[in-house]
Write a structure and sequence with these properties.
Among the domains are: about 10-70, no CATH class; about 280-325, no CATH class. A hairpin with a 4-residue loop joins strand 7 and strand 8. Strands 1-2 form a two-stranded antiparallel ribbon. Residues about 340-355 have low confidence and may be disordered. The chain is built from twelve helices and twelve strands. By secondary structure, it is mainly alpha-helical. The protein has helices at about 10-20, 25-35, 50-60, 95-100, 125-150, 155-165, 170-180, 195-205, 235-240, 260-265, 290-295, 320-330, and strands at about 85, 90-95, 100-105, 110, 115, 120, 225-230, 235, 265-270, 280, 310, 315.
Length: about 350
Amino acid sequence: MAAVEPQLSTQAIEQAVIQAASAARTVRLLAEYLTAHPHALTDGTSGTVPVLRRLAQALYSAGARRIAVRDPTCVECGRMARSKKRVGDGWMCSTCQSKIRYPCAGCGQLRRAYARHPAGVLCEVCVRHRRNAEGDQAVTSRIVDAIRSRHAPRLTVAAMAAMVRKVAPRPVDRRLLAEHVDPICLPAGEAPLPLTRLIIALTAVKAFGLPSLVCGDCAKPVGGDGHASLKVIQCGQCARRCPECGRPWRRLYASICNRCRLDRHRRRGDCTCCSRRDRVLDDRGMCRTCRDRTARRCLDCGASATPLHHVERGEVCDRCALRRDLDQFLPEQTTPPCNGSARRSSPPSPTRPAPG
């Protein structure tokens, strides 16, 4: 080094060597490498060996002119880059390396290699999904073990895990649920939604040792048919009560019942014909029964009768249908002819005056 850089002092060179290789074994390996490759610091690629790179940087900082860090040339783009990878007899920079796509062992798509796997390489998305799945499986197992041991020992592990995923479908909900299941307790403030749903689900399978829930509408205990939302906890009857008509006909997660939803486009009231109440009316104020009764009238006589028979222009009753059939076979009635043997009609007698 002193022969290559005469302007550097021996003390500066020793300080650079100590800074690059502090261990005695590393200094010995560095001396053997420079002995075998005397032009490594001046002509070779000094950036491929870590200790040689540190030595070249220290000497360059101390004032060296011929010794400097020299990175290898990329076999793809021909540029010199610090981040590199060995490819056969050459080197490849990180930019060219990132452009290479490999078939992922997880998703099967051509992706950038992120991690090694016994089946091949994995992309970053598959690695992240695997890590999240392992963490979520550990949280679910902890919840299942805490619940089965204290509240529902008769349930199987698979059934308990399915119940947990149903009441807490998101991973963030399961992490929140894991904070309150050992043991199951309601916080002083507002209870988390996954916890209330889990208590209702466990009540439905007759678990024991659970905190009691009270309906927010009727203040009655909530059973296994209850419903929990972000606003209030309701029993089964209150959860199915329609807010418009007040009948327990509403389905869960519906704002109103199906009847009120359809009646928004209908006219409902008392029938003007039969006077029955709460009926779907038409423009004339008649219910369906009265409409059908009015519409089913005989075409010939106009009577309302059932059954009716279809004809060419409408419907007729049984009597009119029979009359139409007979008219096809019987001839029309005509006035009989006048003959000589017929009795002649006598002239009308004069009107007698009434007695005085």
